[in-house]
Amino acid sequence: MEIQLQNKAIVELLYKALLGEVGKMDMVSKLVASDLEWWFHGPPRCQHMMRLLTGEKPHNNGFRFEPRSVTAIGDCVITEGWEGRAYWVHVWKLKNGLITQFKEYFNTWLVVRDFRPSAWEDEKQDNDTLWQSQPRDLYRRSLPGL
């Protein structure tokens, strides 16, 4: 549990740095592995975070990542937000206090489920949901599930 809290704090610090609240890119380079594994799902024009992390676009590129929720599950931290133009979810994987993997989703509803077999079959519940997206305006938008 302590590792989850530490991982959550690291990801929260990353967003603060990206928003220019602390240390900016010097801080980002200390939190993210140089060989970061990245995966993206969404329109190519929405690869805002990767453009920030690679320095292709400056902090003030018009798209601000301000998470409205940050949840730690195991070695992953899931963040989600609504920027006004797009709903987004980020999944950060950490190892030894360093972000090693990043998955970015735009305008997609995600569900994280635990499919590990239970030692006690009578305690096992099918498809135990660990986390689920909470996008705004679900009734007016089409957000496919993954």
Automatic annotation (TrEMBL):
<protein>
    <recommendedName>
        <fullName>Wound-induced protein 1</fullName>
    </recommendedName>
</protein>
<dbReference type="InterPro" id="IPR032710">
    <property type="entry name" value="NTF2-like_dom_sf"/>
</dbReference>
<dbReference type="InterPro" id="IPR009798">
    <property type="entry name" value="Wun1-like"/>
</dbReference>
<dbReference type="Pfam" id="PF07107">
    <property type="entry name" value="WI12"/>
</dbReference>
